[in-house]
Amino acid sequence: MTRSIERTVAVGEDTERVDGRAKVAGRAPYAYEHAVERPLYAHPIQATIAAGRVRDMVTERALALEGVQAVLTPDNAPRLRTGQDAELEILQDSGVAFRGQLIGCVVADTPEIARHAADLVEVDYERAEHDVAFPRERSGLYRPDVVNPSYETDTDDGDVGTALASAEVRLDAEYRTARNHNNPLEPHTTVAVWDADGLTLHDSTQGVHSMRSVVAGLFDLEESQIRVLAPYVGGGFGSKGTAHAHVVLAALAAKRMAGRPVKLALTRQQMFTLTGYRTPTVQRIALGADRDGRIDALVVDVEEQTSRIKEFAEQTGVPSRTMYAAPNRRTSHRLAALDVPVPSWMRAPGVCPGMFGPEVAMDELAERCGLDPIELRLRNEPERDPETGKPYSSRNLAECLRVGARRFGWENRPAAPRQTRKGEWWIGTGVASSTYPVHHSPGSAARIERGTDGRYHVSIGAVDIGTGAWTVLGQIAADALGVPAEDVVVTVGDTNLPFASVAGGSSGTANWGSAVVAAAQGFRARFGDDDPPAGSEHTEAAPENPDTERFAMHAFGAQFAEVHVSADTGEIRVPRLLGVFAAGRIVNPRLGRSQLLGGMTMGLSMALHEDGVMDERLGMVVNHDLAEYHVATNADVPSVAAEWLDEHDPHVNAMGTKGIGEIGIVGTAAAIANAAYHATGVRVREFPVTADRFLTG
Ligand code: MOS
Questions:
Q1: Which CATH number fits domain 146-179+278-438+550-694: 3.10.290.10, 3.40.50.1820, 3.40.50.10190, 3.30.365.10?
Q2: 345, 351, 439: residue to mutate for ligand 1 pocket, most atoms within 8 A of CB
Q3: What is the CATH number of domain 34-129+183-274?
Q4: Can you tell me the distance from the alpha carbon of 539 to that of 518, in angstroms, rounded to the nearest whole number?
Q5: CA-to-CA distance for 26 and 21, rounded, in angstroms?
Q6: pLDDT tens by residue, 553-598
Q7: What's the pTM value of the predicted model, to 2 decimals?
């Protein structure tokens, strides 16, 4: 294993991001802005039925429009290799699996002409009955083989039935989360160029190498014939972590237009259908405890949806498996396969929705046991990971709760709900735990080269989606090489650079940083510590870390919310959020804080606003834009603060980092729901927490 970095001069420095100035000055070319010769523009044609097939597409009027170069349909589109991924294998047959599915595209001289012409294509459908209703009867659900990405679907330890029956305190309740949509600032865009050498994609993606491998499979190309570039990406949250059909559409169009580059930018509305979304969930939770609050039985049964053509099973029951000590535990996942778009990753898949029901249930259990909700959590701290029996590499949830309670001013909190009112407003506070696993993906590699400029050039095919990865990799390299940070230049975002895992699972810094440290140490071993000649070069992959087998590795946190609810209207406001995290070493406080604040803000958004509303007659989400699908903006978020413990974990990797991209969103929404109860005495078990939920109370 690589030696850990002992000299941490650059690591821990609060520096600005290396790409920051280019971005704010408008000099950072995002995928769509990449300059190409004589570009053409593609606009998608989407199905307007939710199930059935396309009988005929009449393209004459579209083709007659000046500036239209081609109309691709299932009849004339280039062929793909099929049978692997029905979401991506578009225009290969006439079937329609959900409303909004791609059934064609117009290629034209300008985006405006392409969009206009797409409207002129007349589509004749053979309609079938569609089924998009969720939630539904459990009998209409099926059991997936695994849940994302490869966790066991169901677990059953001990004897939950007996333990629940004999528990002194019992809780049995149902919790629901809404359908949530990823809305990164930069929409999904692709520029595809097909020439004699193969295919080049300038793509807004979280992983250039993973994208290349998927596209190679579909188009029957060698990976060496494809280059994917993504130097600047304006957010992703997981929606750019896997390939979606629009990338294939752009590549199909470019293949058809051989030699002419094709640019495709999804509209905000199209993103609601084509880029994945977070499934709604139903969580049936049972807890059994003794009067002192020690949990003996825990049940989390999850129901959620997937698309009929491709399974995505959100791992909502998984965080409960490791969160608290409970000798008897059962978790399960069941899915409804519907005529809906394909759900996928959204910031902390599984963990984010899966820490809502259980963390509200903990609040309810605390009340029944007459305990403070922090004390209840402390009493259920496990010695070892309850799921695997392994020791934790480090687990500092208790310290996060204690430090957070002090900072937030928890000690004067009234135990009972509905105690504090100022004028129109009921005021309450709530707490919830956060967690996120430390994911490792093998294989990332980095190259270090001494340049003629005397600086050390670090190359890795990583993608900085706005997280600050570009910057922190330079800090890590500087310490591993033993040089000042300004002597390091990092290049990312290109399949021509050494392989890098996808920017997902909060694992970028861990995986890529491990590769950078390995390459730097290998470089020093080969060329010595002093002034190696220009051109000295070394490439090395991150080593295996045997500790990942020996320890359970998770980051933890505690989130606190203050909530005001209007006695007159039920309007809910969140004037204050505080998160305290234990996520290993924080490489750059400024960028780390930004990740955590962003996650918490997104959690607030989930709690109060985000709700994709399915019109079951049409089979579509009707509020598919930012006017009607509300995401939190500045006025919704008066004060969010994030802090962290100085946690040293020698087991996770050479840097001691655990990952911070996702944990910020985990637990926020439960803390807000718990605070809303404390303010009003009305228990809301369903997101979003809107004004009408308080009317019954
Ligand atoms: Mo994140 S949902 O793993 O990109």
A1: 3.30.365.10
A2: 345
A3: 3.90.1170.50
A4: 9
A5: 8
A6: 999 999 999 999 999 999 999 999 999 999 999 999 999 999 999 9
A7: 0.97
